[in-house]
Amino acid sequence: VQFVESGGGLVQPGGSLRLSCAASGFTLSYYVMSWFRQAPGKERERVGSITSAGNMINYLDSVKGRFTISRDNAKSTVYLQMISLKPEDTAVYYCNRYNSVRPWGPGTQVTVSS
User: Measured in Å, how far apart are the chain's first and last C-alpha atoms?
Assistant: First the structure.
């Protein structure tokens, strides 16, 4: 199992980013997938999850209306579109199955700062 996240960067408050997660070593379409994040000094938290067919998605309250999770099972890729970014969204972002498995990917750093 392997996850490779990409698309992070430095963005000003109110900006947008689109993260991608390339998954391999398993059949993505069989699994509910999640995005997680870990801010400095804090525990990793689940940002949101998407069902196998993409028809049900849920989000952490603090990102509702700003973040959108999607997936392309044919490309074995999961996406996280983020708009109206806030400094408190600064974290390393990871994807994984809903019931997370090891190893985690390297994550992608998102820094929201002016």
Answer: 37
**79 CB-near residues (< 8 Å, 6+ apart):** 18, 19, 20, 21, 69, 70, 71, 72
Q: Residue 111 CA to chain centroid, in angstroms?
A: 14
Model confidence pLDDT, tens digit, residues 2-59: 999 999 999 999 999 999 999 999 999 999 999 999 999 999 999 999 999 988 899 9
Residues 6+ apart with CB under 8 A from 45: 36, 37, 38, 60
With b for 16 or more beta-carbon neighbours within 10 A and e for fewer, the 41-61 pattern comes to eeebeebbbbebeeeeeebee
Alpha carbon of residue 50 to chain centroid: 10
